[in-house]
Amino acid sequence: MNDTGLDELLRRAARREPEALCKLVETYSPRVFGLLYRLTGSRDAAEDLLQETFLRVVRVIGEYRHVGKFESWLFRISANLARDRARRLVRRGESGVAERRDAMASPGTGDAGNPAEYLARQEMEQRLAACLQRLSAAEREVIVLRHYSGLAFREIAAILKIPLGTALARAHRALQRLRQELADED
Amino acid sequence: MSDELHNLEQTVEQEMALLRDLPAATPRPECLAQVKAAVVAEAGRLARRRRALWWTGTGLGAAAAVLLAVGWLTFGRHARAILTSDPDTALTEWAAALDESNARLASLLNGGGMYGDVGGDENAEVDELFRSLDESLRCFENLESG
Questions:
Q1: CB of A79 within 8 A of CB of A155?
Q2: A22, A34, A128 ranked by CB distance to B25: nearest
Q3: Rounded to two decimals, what is the model's pTM?
């Protein structure tokens, strides 16, 4: 979506026009869901948080000023909701291990293609997803945000309220660990 | 941005290719439909709430306007009474009425009319005294409102 189209869409969404709000959901749901799914490790939790994210958008979009990137604002809401949920789980003493197992399964749409290639890709996806879940929450958060939001590390650092150097160091460490985990499995 | 940070960012961006194989997670169609329905319902709820707040605000505004109007009319009447009464005149009238009343009371007491039987003249004197007292009080009220 170009900037002009997005401007108009956001103006209409700010007036809480149902069509505009539904268009926002359609446009951003896949990326927001991807982020939430990788952060929570649970499809159910990701779907709940997806709904909560857009409900929050409806409630506060009147206060939103479109000067930066809309994605930055949207993904901040999602990331904060995922963090709040993680804190609640920690307080309740739930580790979310079962959910992490859930996250190892591919949530994709199941694009078939060549069966052998499909199986190989499925296996790689599952290994990657499993290794991702073994990272610390902070490490996972920064690389998953970069992957799904498409935002620059500078913007991600602003969302997470950490210095750019910290965000980059965290991402670097996370990716090294991920590579190591994948190599250990081979 | 320092060169060191810039280089680190370049390195990390290249390493991010590792996530290339991470599947694109998509919400189920029924979930998407549910989110849209929830969003539209929330927008409707907020619109109804805004309308209710508008009506409440308008109602409170109208009530405040009525109270102001009533208050102004009441105060206005009082103000008109003050404006039409000349304080100097009222004070003079009250002092004169009080003097007259006192004089009649003294005259009656000196004549003993208040303590014993009184004749027709004395009765008339007493009536006159009370009339003077009434007038004195009326003048005092005027003075107070002025």
A1: no
A2: A34
A3: 0.66
**Cα–Cα distances in angstroms (integers) from residue B67 to residues A77, B61, B62, B64, B71, in the given order:** 46, 10, 9, 5, 6
| A158: helix, strand or coil | helix
Contact A59 B1 (CB under 8 A): no
**The residue count for chain A:** 186
pLDDT digits (tens, 9 = 90+) for B40-66: 999 999 989 888 888 888 888 878 887
Interface with chain A: mutation pick from B3, B40, B49, B50, highest number of A CBs within 10 Å: B40
Query: Which residue bears the tokens 């929830």?
Result: B38
Q: Does A103 touch chain B if contact means CB atoms closer than 8 Å?
A: no
What are the residues whose beta carbons fall under 8 Å from the beta carbon of A125, sequence distance 6 or more? A106, A108, B21, B22, B23
Q: What's the pLDDT tens digit per position in B70-102?
A: 666 665 555 555 555 676 776 777 777 777 767
B27 vs A29: CB contact, 8 Å cut-off?
Answer: yes
State the number of CA atoms in the 13 A half-sphere of A9 facing the CB: 17
Q: Which tokens is A46 given?
A: 């990701």
